[in-house]
Design goal:
This protein is an alpha+beta fold. It folds into two domains: about 150 residues, no CATH class; about 120 residues, no CATH class. Helices cover about 35% and strands about 10% of the residues. The chain contains 14 helices and eight strands. Strand 5 and strand 6 form a beta hairpin. The longest helix has 20 residues. It is globular and about 60 Å long. The protein starts with a helix and ends with a helix. The mean pLDDT is about 95. Bound molecules: cobalamin (B12) and iron/sulfur cluster (2 copies). The site of one iron/sulfur cluster (SF4) has 13 residues, from helix 7 and helix 10.
């Protein structure tokens, strides 16, 4: 049996998925030498990417008999300004963390689509959002959902880069070929490289992980290097996306209900963050990605922002 492309699209649309595509699971969409080179540059906290490299390069180790990788994109952008309007004394939380954790909102949609694929087509599936051994950006590009920009992110022509990606491995083929690749829209643009406050994008497409504030404020275990400017960022960073022309033209989009910013999450006051005890921290960030970072590390960054 094959998956009918039109039915797959219909199921995805019914679940609120913004874009869907698929690719032949046997055609690994990365240059293996480049990938290994990049993995060798990753800091220890991102070591998990390299540890499961065999699975990343061979999806049949994840789902035996896999024929197709289905990739989904869900936009989380809405009509709110970014760090440029942040008041004095506040710290910036990245857009992806203004609402309930995407592992709690996006993953259930991807799992629901996987279940529909199983029921309708008698397939076996395995699905992930973020945490699986899947090169999600590269597969999304291979599925024709968008191109990888100089900021290192998957950019869709319609929804820009503020999208979460989800992947479904399926042991069946689709009855239509993959969508054509989306040509790079970066051309001579260097807006993201210029906007990066730390120089982490000095080499386009190859983010300097140690200099990236997303890493330093979300995943790093140690204090950020003393000479690295934090530029107001408390948790995550959106600068290389906010300036991107593919996102700038999205202005005035209505938020989807599940991604509406929760009160107090966008520009929290640093003094308030620093005065929080464990219970107050939990009450404020409950169910959001910030809770995974833990109070001590968030306060460690807040302290740096208050006393640079
Ligand atoms: C590890 C990780 C991180 C790390 C490293 C990021 C990175 N660039 O890989 C850190 C902590 C820094 C991070 C930050 C963020 N992340 Co992150 N992250 C991941 C994760 C778990 C794995 C990524 C991975 O495998 N990297 C492997 C390395 C080797 O990839 P790479 O650095 O891009 O290297 C490639 C390029 O250099 C490329 N390359 C080299 N030369 C050239 C030349 C050309 C022309 C091209 C096209 C490519 C190219 O080839 C290399 C090999 O493929 C994915 C989820 C997943 N399972 O995929 C989410 C994911 C990539 N993250 C995501 C998000 C939202 C973010 C943040 C925006 C969060 C935030 N606001 O703070 C930031 C963005 C920072 C940035 N500009 O990239 C989303 C991205 C959605 C999208 N539109 O692309 C993902 C897909 C999660 C999800 N399921 O939605 N992340
Ligand atoms: S997320 Fe911020 S620090 Fe990281 S590359 Fe983009 S602009 Fe630079
Ligand atoms: S800001 Fe410009 S160079 Fe950077 S990803 Fe967007 S289009 Fe490409």
């Amino acid at each position: 049996m094959e998956i009918q492309a039109h039915k797959l699209r219909e199921l995805a649309q019914g679940l609120g998925i913004d874009a869907i595509g698929w690719a032949d699971a046997a055609q690994i969409p990365v240059n293996i030498t480049a990938l290994q080179h990049r993995i060798a540059q990753m800091p220890p906290e991102l070591g998990y990417v390299g540890r499961r490299i065999q699975e990343r390069l061979n999806p049949s180790l994840v789902l035996p008999g896999v024929k197709t990788i289905v990739m989904a994109a869900i936009s989380y952008f809405g009509n709110e300004s970014g760090i440029e309007d942040m008041p004095d004394g506040a710290g910036f939380i990245s857009r992806f963390a203004w609402s309930k954790d995407y592992h709690l909102t996006v993953l259930p949609k991807i799992q629901a689509l996987a279940r529909e694929i199983e029921v309708h087509f008698g397939a076996k599936t395995k699905s992930y959002v973020d945490t699986g051994p899947i090169l999600e950006k590269a597969w999304a590009a291979a599925c024709g959902l968008g191109f990888i920009g100089k900021n290192g992110l998957l950019i869709t022509p319609e929804f820009g880069s503020f999208v979460f990606l989800g992947s479904i491995l399926v042991d069946l083929e689709v009855d239509h070929p993959a969508l054509p690749a989306v040509p790079s829209g970066c051309t001579n643009c260097v807006a993201c490289q210029k906007a990066c406050p730390t120089g982490a994008l000095a080499t386009p497409w190859c983010i300097d992980y140690e200099r990236c504030l997303a890493h330093q404020t979300v995943t790093a275990k140690q204090k950020p290097p003393a000479d690295l400017p934090l530029a107001g960022h408390l948790y995550g960073c959106d600068r290389c996306q906010d300036v991107c022309p593919f996102n700038r033209r999205l202005k005035n989009r209505e938020y989807r209900q599940e991604f509406k910013p929760l009160p107090g999450l966008k520009y929290p006051e640093l003094r308030t963050i620093l005065s929080m005890d464990e219970q107050q921290f939990k009450d404020t960030f409950k169910d959001t990605p910030v809770i995974r970072r833990g109070r001590e590390k968030v306060q460690m960054i807040a302290r740096r922002l208050v006393e640079p």
